[in-house]
Amino acid sequence: MIDVAARMHRLGTEGAFEVLAKAQALAATGKSIVNLCIGQPDFPPPSHVIEAAEKAWRDGHHGYTPAPGILPLREAVAGDLHRRFNVQVDPGDITVTPGSKVALFFALQILGEPGTEIIHPNPAYPGYESLISYSGATPIPIPLIEERGFSFEADDILTRIGPRTRAIILNSPANPTGGVIDRGELDKLVAGLADFPHVVVISDEIYGRIIYDGKAHHTLLSYESIRDRLILLDGWSKGFAMTGWRLGYAVWPKVLVEHANRLAINCHSCVANAVQYGGIAALEGPMDEVNAMNAAFEQRRHVIVDRLNSLPGISCVNPAGAFYAFPNIKHTGFNAAVLQRQLLEQEGVAGLAGTSFGVWGEGYLRFSYAASIEQIEEAMARVGRFLDRNAVRRPAALRS
Ligand SMILES: Cc1ncc(COP(=O)(O)O)c(C=O)c1O
Asked: Rounded to the nearest 10 degrees, what angle do helices 273-284 and 71-85 cross at?
């Protein structure tokens, strides 16, 4: 009998990858599937990005690079942050990683250990709770509730901070809710953090380019008072439709960057060489393809929210960013896991139970609208058919 380390039992998984595998298995049997479960744009990356990476392969960029990434890429990241937010970032404080989730993993390995606590939103990207637990720290959830636009009040966090708190994780725009943290609450939170100088802020801004209604993303980098304890996570996956390239980064406080780079050396050595050249082209090249993609997401958002609100038992607030709708299903009489399963098995609609993102996701489903309008319309028609068949009109006790 082989023993594995006890920490392996504390590591969770991602519902999206599990449902995707099930949906693909059903599709292989000939069932028609509409996939709204996976969080990735259905667009190709901008064409000049692909050309830059192709050229880099052909030009012979096949070897290892410095572990934190090639300097021109880290300079391009600093330049992009300066152009977008008017902030100064030292390229020496940046580590480029194979996806931002690796930077998240590093941050939590650096900070978390038994006897410490890390505060995180719930429902949220499943990696937060899973990787906090894996580090040995105790996850302390902040419930994100619909009535507050799936955000929180500064005091919800400040009152949970104690001597054992190592870090808080923030994510705006958010997965799975599409919520954006209110700027006033961020100001209050940062002001309140002055009383807790031992607490690191991990700000996951991977959806920062996907924000609607003409609003601008507000980065935590702009708060000078916490720059010496802020870890910013971002990457190319969502904003440039480059999920499979595996390219992300973190900006670290000076005292942490060395730890992150040592983890990179021990873990993956470096991100694929030519991929890094694609990353430079994405940040420095024309943005018209990115803007067109975002305009398409905004249009799809209207369609999916409109259709969801016309369905019996379902209501959906307008997401302010990212590409997820997070409809309230409490009046359907189904709990989230049952509705997820039955929609997939009976109607071939792949969505995700809100509970895949934490206990506070009960009563919700997540649909990714990074899919064509035709797919969205088809999925919503099928959900409607399912609800009619199950006579959903009346409030009912939760079925299981
Ligand atoms: C909130 C959030 N953070 C991080 C990630 C990881 O992204 P990547 O590792 O592709 O950069 C995701 C992916 O779904 C996400 O939704």
From this structure: 20
- Quick one: the chain helix, strand, coil %, rounded to 5? 45, 15, 40
Q: What is the pLDDT of residue 1?
A: 87
Domains of the chain, first to last: 6-44+288-389 (3.90.1150.10), 63-284 (3.40.640.10)
Pick the residue whose CA is nearest to atom 4 on ligand 1.
101
Contact 353, 32 (CB under 8 A): no
| Residue 182: strand, helix, or coil | coil
CA–CA distance, 393 with 396 (Å, rounded to integer): 9
Give the pair of three-digit tokens for residue 120. Answer: 């995180």
Residue (of 125, 130, 153, 165) closest to 16 by Cα position: 125
Q: What gap in Å lies between CA 369 and CA 366, rounded to an integer?
A: 9
Ligand 1 mean position to 100 CA, how many Å? 6
Q: In the chain, where does DSSP find H-type helix?
A: 15-28, 47-58, 71-85, 100-111, 127-135, 154-158, 183-193, 254-267, 273-284, 288-309, 336-342, 373-389
DSSP class of residue 242? -
Q: Which atom number of ligand 1 is nearest to the Cα of residue 237?
A: 10
Q: What's the pLDDT score for residue 102?
A: 98
Structure token pair of residue 395: 């409030």
CA distance 355 to 362: 5
Host H or E run for residue 34: strand 34-35
Helix (H) or strand (E) holding 166: strand 165-171
Picking from 215, 233, 212, 224, the residue whose alpha carbon sits closest to that of residue 167 is: 233
Sign of CA dihedral 331, 335, 340, 343: negative
Ligand 1 centroid from CA 38, angstroms:
11
Q: Is the CB of 307 under 6 A from ligand 1?
A: no
Distance CA 81, CA 135 (A): 30
**Span 152-207, pLDDT tens digits:** 899 999 999 999 999 999 999 999 999 999 999 999 999 999 999 999 999 999 99
Determine if ligand 1 sits within 6 Å of the CB of residue 101. yes
State how far the Cα of 255 lies from the Cα of 45, in Å rounded to an integer. 34
